[in-house]
TrEMBL record:
Protein name: Cysteine proteinase falcipain 2a
Keyword Membrane set for record: yes
PANTHER family: CYSTEINE PROTEASE FAMILY C1-RELATED
GO biological process: proteolysis
Source taxonomy: Eukaryota, Sar, Alveolata, Apicomplexa, Aconoidasida
Database matches in InterPro entries: Papain-like_cys_pep_sf, Pept_cys_AS, Peptidase_C1A, Peptidase_C1A_C, Prot_inhib_I29
Membrane topology summary: Single-pass type II membrane protein
Domain Cathepsin propeptide inhibitor: 34-91
Length: 172
């Protein structure tokens, strides 16, 4: 019967004995990366089975990052972070779902009161400037990404990031 036991990691078509010397020797680099990931991010797992599952997810995410970074046509680089042991769905459910219990009062009223055309005209700048071609990242116009942890205040982080960038652009 094909059911995982405490000594196996499930990998699509087969099971690997996690403590097998051959497996350890063939995957020493990945195992070392995973243990450094655990140490760096203070990860704790409830059981050996959970650790094995997280290792498998970590391997899959590391593979995706490597595939992306090795693509000559990619416009940016990826790296593993504290979420590397989560699947996309786990990450989405835990960090990308709205947790607000109270609707913002008067938010529709505030949006209706703004005159966007006046704001845009005020800050538009030179008409001959090619905004699409200018990369502000290369000119200190974009601040580094910040980790909001689990606070659910993405609106605040994005607002502050926008203000920081506007300040940096106007200052330079």
């Amino acid at each position: 019967e094909n059911t995982p036991s405490n000594n196996f990691i499930h990998n699509k078509d087969y099971f690997i004995n996690f403590f097998d010397n051959k497996f350890l020797m063939n995957n020493a680099e990945h195992i070392n990366q995973f243990y450094m990931f655990i140490k760096t991010n203070n990860k704790q797992y409830n059981s050996p089975n959970e650790m094995k599952e997280r290792f498998q997810v970590f391997l899959q995410n590391a593979h995706k990052v490597n595939m992306h970074n090795n693509n000559k046509n990619s416009l940016y680089k990826k790296e593993l972070n504290r979420f590397a042991d989560l699947t996309y769905h786990e990450f989405k459910n835990k960090y990308l779902s709205l947790r607000s219990s109270k609707p913002l009062k008067n938010s529709k009223y505030l949006l209706d009161q703004m005159n966007y055309e006046e704001v845009i005209k005020k800050y538009r700048g030179e008409e001959n400037f090619d905004h699409a071609a200018y990369d502000w990242r290369l000119h200190s116009g974009v601040t580094p990404v910040k980790d909001q942890k689990n606070c659910g205040s993405c609106w605040a982080f994005s607002s502050i990031g926008s203000v920081e960038s506007q300040y940096a652009i106007r200052k330079n």
